[in-house]
From TrEMBL:
Its cofactor is FAD. Keywords: Flavoprotein, Membrane, Oxidoreductase, Transmembrane, Transmembrane helix. Residues 13-353 form the FAD dependent oxidoreductase domain. This is FAD dependent oxidoreductase domain-containing protein. It comes from the Bacteria. Belongs to the DadA oxidoreductase family. Signal peptide: none annotated. GO terms for molecular function: oxidoreductase activity.
Amino acid sequence: MKEGKIVTQNQEIAVVGAGIVGATTAFYLAKKGYSVTIYDEGTGQATAAAAGIICPWLSQRRNKKWYHLAASGAKFYPELMTDLGESLTDSAIYQQVGTLLFKKNEKLLLKLEKLAKERRETAPEIGDLTIVASDQLHDYVPILNSSQAALFASGGARVDGELLTRKLIEQAVELGATFQQGKVALTIDAENQLFVQSKKYTQVVLAVGAWLPELLEPLGFTVDIRPQKGQLLCLDIPEETTNWPVVMPDGEKDIIPFNNGKIIVGATHENDKGYDLTPTAPELKLMLAEASELAPSLKQAIQVSTKVGTRAYTSDFSPFFGQVSECPQLYVASGLGSSGLTTGPIIGKMLAQAIHQEETELDFADYPVADYVVDRENK
Ligand SMILES: Cc1cc2nc3c(=O)[nH]c(=O)nc-3n(C[C@H](O)[C@H](O)[C@H](O)COP(=O)(O)OP(=O)(O)OC[C@H]3O[C@@H](n4cnc5c(N)ncnc54)[C@H](O)[C@@H]3O)c2cc1C
């Protein structure tokens, strides 16, 4: 009998949203033997549109709690892959191919190398750190052409968010979960009982990313979440790209090689477009032009498709997750911003652990829901 079977009986859990957070939560809940129903609408999902960079250690964000979460999230990936039965060395979903990061000048690059070495003391997952001279860049990524050196971190990885969530949901369903496509609403009655599409649940997890206000504001909550539009380009090139590292130029437009010639270039960070999902030629053209400065042959690449998704941001850019204190059977997670592929899986796993009343690796109090989800009546 599986661990937790006794605790889990008579518990019906709804997970609303099957992006990276909801899919991981549902997978681990199903693994613990819970009866899980997953609801997902899917349009604009950030996870399916994401670029796929897992490399938090080279970020210069000063928010220590965010860094702790993101570094723990990156460390957790190999465990997640093992739990899913995926190879760590040959997978289309996740691969530690390393990251090549550029800075404006050598002084800033050396400063970053110093920070990365300090961080490696607590995060050995960062791997080997090497300054790669400009004339050696092509050994790492043959299409690069730059007069600048870069920092290579061997522990950096790339993940295909769409493939990962598909696998998580497939396995959750194999373990007994139910998946329902479509948009749903949550209701809470006077006794704090939770209903999704008029079906009663013992617990509900809202992993709906940028759409949390839409679900909770009708119930009397104010939610500090705003949408941010992100667009990216999917290219095809003739080279064999499978083991190329992720390239992070100075700025926001990255080059992420996947298997068999597939390259992603992106992404935009558009704060004034709300939930709009229209690809726009000027932004896509500009991204390609910027990426081509470092990799000129990308100008000739075949443009296969564009992806557009909506990120969720809080006003101070911090993510939050855990129980809603006014309604403890309700769990939420949002505000993962531009690093949610990195932080999402560990958040999902910890939500499942919290529901199962297990100890979690990180303290939920560091990512307090109450700072971002406020009951208007009790304010
Ligand atoms: C262009 C782009 C590039 C990115 N690149 C990276 C990167 O390189 N590295 C990184 O770490 N992160 C990256 N991110 C960020 C990352 O993708 C997100 O932070 C993360 O995927 C958010 O996951 P989530 O599960 O919270 O939300 P989402 O993935 O948005 O999932 C929410 C789901 O809930 C569903 N939903 C909403 N309302 C309802 C409802 N009423 N009923 C049913 N379903 C509903 C939605 O349809 C959606 O499917 C990127 C994001 C974008 C947009």
